[in-house]
Amino acid sequence: MTKTQLIDKIAKESGLTKKQAAKAFDACMNTVVGALTEGENVQISGFGSFLVKDVPAHVGRNPRTNESVEIAASRRISFVPSKSLKEKIKG
After folding, report:
1. What's residue 91's pLDDT?
2. For residues 78 and 52, what is the distance between their CA atoms, to the nearest angstrom?
3. Residue 19 — left, alpha, or beta (φ > 0 → left; ψ -120 to 50 → alpha)?
4. CB of 22 closer than 8 Å to CB of 12
5. pTM as predicted
6. Torsion of CA 63, 69, 73, 79, to 10 degrees
7. Are 70 and 89 in contact (CB under 8 A)?
């Protein structure tokens, strides 16, 4: 499902215009992205949690040359679905 399809569905189910639904969707996404950027976890009841994980610097290996390569520290985002979402997906 694309962003446009999501916005169309939100507009249809909520009674908003497509323009209003797009504005609400963008506001929601910007809020989630902003929280994740600041290192906050985002929990949406009945859906799941977006977690920010710090990955320390470590040494990797180039598979072609077998040389050691320094991999810088970084942040990663992971998603953990809620129990109710897992149950709905299983059917």
Report:
1. 74
2. 7
3. alpha
4. no
5. 0.79
6. 0
7. no
